Amino acid sequence: MTPKKQVVFIMTDTTRFDMVGCYGFPAMKTPCLDDLASKGVRFEKTYSCQPVCGPARSAIFTGLFPHSNGSISNCMPLGAGIKTAGEYLQQAGVHSAYIGKWHLDGGDYFGNGICPAGYDSDYWYDMRCYLEELSPELREYSRKEASSLEGIDESFTFAHRCTERALSFLNKYGSEDFFLTVSFDEPHQPYLCPEPYASMYKDYEMPKGENFYDTLEEKPFYQKLWAGKTLHEDKQNVHIKPRLFLGCNSFADYEIGKIIKAVERLAPDAMIIFTSDHGEALGAHSLTQKGPSVYEEIAHIPMIIKGGAYCRSPKGAVHHGVTSHIDILPTLLDYFDCDIPPVLQGKTMRPIIEKPNTPFKDTVFVEFHRYEVDHDGFGGLQFMRAAVTDTHKMALHLLDDTDELYDTVHDRAELKNLIKTKGCEQIRDELHRRILDFMNDTRDPYRGYQWKVRPWNKEYTAPEWEVDGYTRQRPEGPGENRQLDYDTGLEIKEFVRYKNKAKKPAGQI
After folding, report:
1. pLDDT above 90 for 129
2. Residue-wise pLDDT tens digits, 42-56
3. Half-sphere exposure (CA, 13 Å, Cβ side) for 436?
4. Which residue did the predictor score with more confidence, 480 or 268?
């Protein structure tokens, strides 16, 4: 019998890399994900494209960075004409279903309850759908952290209800080609979880790493604002006990385990992909939550892939190089034997799924704009563009006087900012160039001379109105018209071309 082309994509919300046991943290109880890693490939250095819920998801499902797809903040929808995985695969005849948190429709945190294009409406189930199943009293109860301490039932949780729908889909369509996404809100606040998970970490205290004591000297000013009073508290007397956060994380692992077992039984040909959208500072660098930072605790997330019938993976393997969420959609399209549109900004991970020791990328990129369009706080507007390699990180902060450079081999805690350090000019300027090239290559609408003119880079001290002077038009995707050249009205021959601007006053020959 010919194997089926099937992919199950599973993600959680706010699971940082060190909250999964197989990443070297045995105190974290995630037996189902650990088992998945033993059967596939664990990616050691995967980074979110923008470490906040909506924009992170936008990059995963569109294959475009938030600056290109329009969802640059929570509660901002994707731009007109931007396609997601379901739309691409539907055109190829692949049955696609999306169950769980979406966060890309421009609605509030919970979504608008409306199934987006490309997905099976019979299985669509976002958080608004969940809340509309509850009475007003139970809605409020579902948003209180203390509810888990009162002994809630598993069946009350969003995670359980998402899992039940996923199991229903697998039972019905397990013998067909399909793409199934299960997107948990857990372990995100309010950390709802039943026993034994609510008490699993009752007495557990997270170890305080070296960067917990970071005083943010020679770091960006916005980070000091972000830290607030915690910057000056007595860190020796601070105890990190995220009991429900970690308990909910282990509960999500339990729900994921039920899906994986069903996949192995009902759809054994399927590829399984797991990741999370972003991390949570938990006091590292005196910061809380997530935001405009490329620190490990915030931007580094887990990713595990068990290959399927059309892309086999070795068991218990590790890819040690940097990887990015931007490469997930090209990988999906490759797996289903679909053309990868030139507009996508990543590339297929097939080579490193099949042979994890294969070199893949020397640099991945992370960005930030704002936390949420509805919120005035969280720093408001924060433009960040960052480059991550196997040995260094650079972050440019357009609205701040201080940029960042870290040697992540010799300074894993990311304490010493090397941006002005003598002897670091070569790697600093090279990463700066890579960021500028990335912004140009992806047609970043926020690119401009301001990113070039940094006080520490002598090569770019003089701003120029024409910046690089190039026009960069968008290549067409499947079923789209080729754009026209402004100067000729004809179809573009060169997408990237030097722009000869008129020097005379308007209307003169």
Report:
1. yes
2. 999 999 999 999 999
3. 18
4. 268
Tokens at residue 205, please? Answer: 């205290």
Distance (Å, rounded) from C-alpha 386 to C-alpha 49? 10
- One-letter amino acid at 11 equals M
Rounded CA-CA distance 327/349 in Å is 7
pLDDT surpasses 80 at 387? yes
Tokens of 125: 């189930």
d(CA 330, CA 273): 13
Name 260's Cβ contacts closer than 8 Å, sequence gap at least 6.
32, 35, 36, 272
Which residue of the set 22, 32, 53, 75 is catalytic?
53
Per-chain mean pLDDT for the chain: 95
For residue 453, give the amino acid letter.
V
Q: How far apart are CA 260 and CA 182, in angstroms?
A: 11
Cα 311 off chain centre by: 23
* Short-list 349, 316, 298, CA closest to 42: 316
pLDDT at 351: 98
Question: Is 103 assigned a catalytic role?
Answer: yes
Instruction: Say which DSSP state 260 is in.
Output: H
- For residue 121, the Cα-to-chain-centroid distance in whole angstroms is 25
Question: Rounded distance, CA 132 to CA 117, Å?
Answer: 22
Return d(Cα 137, Cα 126) in angstroms, integer.
20
Residue 502 confidence (pLDDT): 58
- Tell me what pLDDT residue 146 has: 95
Catalytic residue among 95, 103, 285, 300: 103
Measured distance CA(218)–CA(469) in Å, rounded: 34
CB-count burial class (<10 Å; 0-12, 13-18, 19+) for 145: middle
Of the pLDDT bands very low, low, confident and very high (cuts 50, 70, 90), residue 486 is: confident
Under 8 Å between Cβ of 95 and 180: no
Q: What is the mean pLDDT of residues 222-243?
A: 94
Q: Give the CA angle between residues 5, 9, 15 to the nearest 5°.
A: 160
Residue 507 has pLDDT above 80, yes or no: no
For residues 33, 38, 41, 45, the Cα torsion angle rounded to the nearest 10 degrees is 60
Residue 115 known to be catalytic: no
